[in-house]
Design goal:
Largest sheet: 8 strands, parallel
Shape: globular
Strand content: 15-25%
Bound molecules: pyridoxal-5'-phosphate
Order of helices and strands: HEHEHEHEHEHEHEHEHH
Number of strands: 8
Distance between the termini: 31 Å
Structural class: alpha/beta
């Protein structure tokens, strides 16, 4: 249905607005990114045509499958999934402007090796595992500063900020801790004043916890389910280390 998506987005933009009002923030400071994993291109296009043009996939295969169908509808692609180094070459074909899931030096190094000969740069966010859950991707908080410093010296990857997936917990306090940790890491990196490092993006908050994320300083929320409906696959399929062998 056409209208369900547009209605859902307006519900989300209202939630964003309310959270901004409550926390004394300007709503222009919070971008909405649509997480489109498992969503068919026709349904994504409805959102794009309604003016919500920042979208992201989790798997290179899905990016590839929907690429042609969406090519004629202006939009911007980010990538928010775990990226295996053997998929980098493919990823670079599809105009992804920002990789939000940079989580290890080996990935940065391989991206650099591909980008350098093409004289290309790519924006990245460093994904941090703020929940301490073994099953989640992202670099451990204590290693973030070091990774940012090393990546900043490459020149091909432009660091714009940090990304995290908060703990999936019914307890609001626990997810809030995750977002606070990301905010404090952002501050530590800013204090270190590394050349070439911009730290203005905090990508945190999803369908279930975007208000908390905004209260804690999110500049971008990533929303899937609340716009497109429930997904047929569980998130573990995208998020857990154990399933990457099937990619
Ligand atoms: C799927 C996904 C989202 C969106 O989650 P919803 O709960 O469906 O809003 C956000 N970020 C990442 C990294 C995701 O994989």
């Amino acid at each position: 249905m056409h209208s369900d998506i547009v209605n859902n987005i307006s519900t989300i933009t209202n939630r964003i607005k309310q959270a901004c009002v409550r926390s004394g923030r300007n709503e222009a400071g919070v971008q909405l990114l649509l997480a489109t994993k498992t969503v068919p291109a026709e349904r994504i296009r409805i959102a794009l045509e309604a003016g919500y043009t920042l979208i992201a996939e989790n798997r290179v295969q899905e990016l590839k499958e929907k690429y042609e169908a969406l090519q004629t509808t202006p939009h911007e692609n980010h990538f928010i999934g775990h990226l295996q180094t053997n998929k980098i070459k493919d990823l670079l074909k599809y105009n992804v402007t920002c990789l939000q899931s940079l989580d290890r030096w080996a990935l940065a190094e391989k991206l650099h090796q591909r980008l350098l000969p093409e004289h290309r740069q790519m924006e990245v966010l460093v994904q941090v595992n703020t929940s301490g859950e073994e099953s989640k991707f992202g670099i451990a908080p204590e290693h973030v500063l070091d990774l940012v410093a090393r990546v900043s010296r490459l020149g091909t990857l432009k660091i714009k900020g940090l990304m995290t997936i908060g703990i999936l917990s019914g307890e609001n306090g626990k997810v809030r801790q995750c977002f606070r940790l990301l905010k404090s890491l952002q501050q530590q990196i800013m204090d270190a004043a590394m050349p070439g490092v911009i730290m203005d993006t905090l990508s945190m908050g999803m369908s279930g916890d975007l208000e908390t994320a905004i209260e804690e300083g999110a500049t971008m929320v990533r929303v899937g389910t609340a716009v497109f409906g429930q997904r047929p696959t569980t998130d573990g399929y995208y998020w857990n280390e154990s399933v990457t062998v099937y990619e």
